[in-house]
Every structure is written in C-alpha cells, then in structure tokens.
Amino acid sequence: MSRLTRLLPDLAPWRSSRDFRLLWLSGAVTTFGNFLAFVAVPVQMKELTGSPLAVGSIGLVELVPLIVFPDEFRGRLAGIGVLAFTVGPQAGQIRAGGMGALIGVRAAVWTGGLSCVAAVGLLAASLPRLWAYDARTNEHAVRAREREKAVA
Predict the structure, then answer these.
(1) Is the pTM of this model over 0.85?
(2) What letters, b where the CB count within 10 A reaches 16 and e where it falls short, cover 106-143?
(3) Which among 48, 55, 73, 99 has most CB atoms closer than 10 A?
C-alpha cells in the first residue's frame, strides 16, 4: 500500500451500508442548506439596501438572544455550541462587511482567514479550563447564585 492510499479515507462504510450513505447524504444536504442561508441573507440585504452597515447589522440582531437569556439556560458545552453556531457566523458577517468596506474584499478575506486561525488557537488553548469548569463550585457562579437569592 502506497503512502498516498493510506492517507485517503476508508470508504468501506459508504460502499457497504445503505443507511450510512443516507445518513451522510442527509447531513451533507442539511449542511449545504444551512450555509446557503448564511450566504443568501447577507447577499439579499446587500442587494436590497446597498449598505455594508445593513449587512453587518444582521449579525448584531442575531446576537440579541445571547445577551437576553441568562447564563443558567446555557450548559457548559451548550454555551460553547451556542457561541460557535450563532456568534461565529454573524461576527464573521459583521467583520467581513466592515473590513470589505474599509480595506477591500481581498484584504478582508485574508484578515478573516488569519483571524479564524488565531481564534482556533485561542480556543484550543482555553479548552482545559472549559473542561474543568463546574458551575457548582466555581467562585463566580456561587457568588452569582448568592446574589440572586439575596434579591429574591
């Protein structure tokens, strides 16, 4: 077996299991549809208004649930998921619209790519602290619960 063939993914489940193919294809179609919406909404806003500021405001509006809902509604990892799936794309849209207007599209794409690499590095560096977090014993969480009990 050559080195190249060892690097290729194992397609045996794809060939042997109809259920696996259907599951994989449904996930691919869902992902494509989700990303299509992330592209279509800002493009439509740009076409309707002609304003990069309006495109960026979409992201600001979508941040409202993260500001309004209290922390107790978000679990340790659910909060990370909420941030990754809601703030990430919208923050990217805000950044892309603003940077595209300021420095041009090509430079905005490059700075966006470098920003993503930096963000992944920071997240990877903070993962041990995220895994160790426990709301029952964390001093900030305990103080917040005490403040809420005092107010109630």
Answers:
(1) no
(2) eebeeeeeeeeeeeeeeeeeeeeeeeeeeeeeeeeeee
(3) 55
